């Protein structure tokens, strides 16, 4: 394989990892590290309704941002992880983690 091919592969791999961390914006992050860690864990568990079942932690859709903010607001209000998951689930309280939520008329694209 040529040197150019190796460089191209390396750039591709770096870009794959770099884009995954872009979704959560600095203004969304909580100052308290423990709460932020919980928020990130919950955001990885919840799925974006419009981004091909991508987690809201990875999704750049406006709806995913709204849900990330909701998760952080609920955590700051003192909710447990289970309460946060219940508050973010608009369709059913019996949903499984990682399953898509509503597919109603309020969907927004990526």
Your description of this structure?
The protein is mainly α. It has a single domain (3-88), classed as Orthogonal Bundle (Helicase, Ruva Protein, domain 3). The chain is 49% helix and 0% strand. It has 4 helices and no strands. The chain has helices at 3-20, 33-45, 62-76, 81-88. The radius of gyration is 16 Å and the shape is elongated. The N and C termini lie far apart (36 Å). The model is unreliable at 91-96 and 102-110 (pLDDT under 50).
What is the class in the CATH system? Mainly Alpha
Enumerate the spans where pLDDT stays under 50 for 5 or more consecutive residues: 91-96, 102-110
What is the percentage of strand-forming residues? under 5%
Globular, elongated, flat, extended or rod-shaped: what is the shape? Answer: elongated
**Alpha-beta content class:** mainly alpha
Rg computed from alpha carbons, rounded to a whole number of angstroms? 16 Å
Query: Helix and strand succession?
Result: HHHH
Report the total helices: 4
Please tell me the CATH architecture by its name. Answer: Orthogonal Bundle
Q: Biggest sheet, open or closed, and with what strands and sense?
A: none
Distance between the termini: 36 Å
Per DSSP E runs of 2 or more residues, the count of β-strands stands at 0
Percent range for helical residues?
A: 40-55%
Write the CATH homologous superfamily: Cytochrome C biogenesis protein
Mean pLDDT, to the nearest integer, reads 75
How many independent structural domains? 1
Annotated CATH topology: Helicase, Ruva Protein, domain 3
């Amino acid at each position: 394989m040529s040197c150019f091919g190796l460089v191209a592969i390396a750039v591709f791999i770096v870009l794959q990892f770099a884009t995954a961390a872009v979704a959560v914006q600095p203004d969304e992050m909580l100052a308290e590290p423990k709460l932020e860690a919980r928020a990130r864990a919950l955001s990885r568990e919840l799925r974006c309704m419009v981004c091909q079942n991508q987690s809201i932690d990875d999704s750049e859709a406006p709806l995913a941002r709204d849900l990330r903010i909701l998760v952080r607001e609920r955590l700051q209000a003192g909710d447990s992880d289970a309460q946060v998951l219940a508050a973010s689930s608009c369709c059913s309280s019996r949903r499984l983690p990682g399953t898509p939520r509503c597919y109603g008329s309020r969907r927004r694209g990526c």
